[in-house]
Task: structure prediction
Amino acid sequence: MGHDISRITDYLYISAWPESQHVDEILSLNIRLILSMHWQRPAVSLRQPPLELLWLPTFDTPLTPIPLSKLRRGVEASLPVIQAGKAVLSHCRYGVHRSVAMACCVLIGTGFSADEAMRLVSNSREVADPYTSYIQARIRKFEHLWQA
Result:
């Protein structure tokens, strides 16, 4: 593939920063929702129909944990897209931490446990690191809140 996109399931992908020239590839994967976890807003072309973009700006540091409200918004936006038979792309700058946390939370939203989600993402995307302490802590906290 031209762009750094990893297939996690039929309905979930993770990537590094997508550019305008990746729109056709993204659409060819049946992706209709992009969850952008980067603090910069992505290209306008990534939010043109039939693509929808949910911008959830976050920072990747142990001192600035991803707000659980943003993880919930991403999951809640993803579920109807997945139920409609379409796919979701979660991205951040490099596709290592923030996008991985969001993807794990989407998996939790579809019925996976945190452990299953982290294992699947880690096995499906070589650079993914859901086990970094502050990322794993957010995934587990989200699982706890989602199941409550």
